[in-house]
Model the fold of this input.
Amino acid sequence: MIELKWSSLKETTPSEYVVRFVFGGACTVLASLVAKRYGPSVGGLFLAFPAIFPSGASLIESHEKSEKAKMGLDGTLRGRVAAALTRLEQRLDALRWQSSH
Done:
């Protein structure tokens, strides 16, 4: 059964809609050029898939990134731990150097 989630419309920003329509428009132009060169059957294949895929993929990617960031899985914590360990190593090296001179 097909289900419509109105809440997902609120999650999409206006800039994401612009990206979707720009990608869709570019793919449509490409499909028309293919159709002009190779005929409407081949052009129709290019029109159906590429007009939908790039925009959908970009929206899914941006939503996944924001969800990962909310959950702390975007690498921020790993970066902070790595920076703290690097700082600790630098401090220990400085202490070792001071005690040797």
The helical segments are 7-11, 14-38, 40-48, 53-71, 76-100.
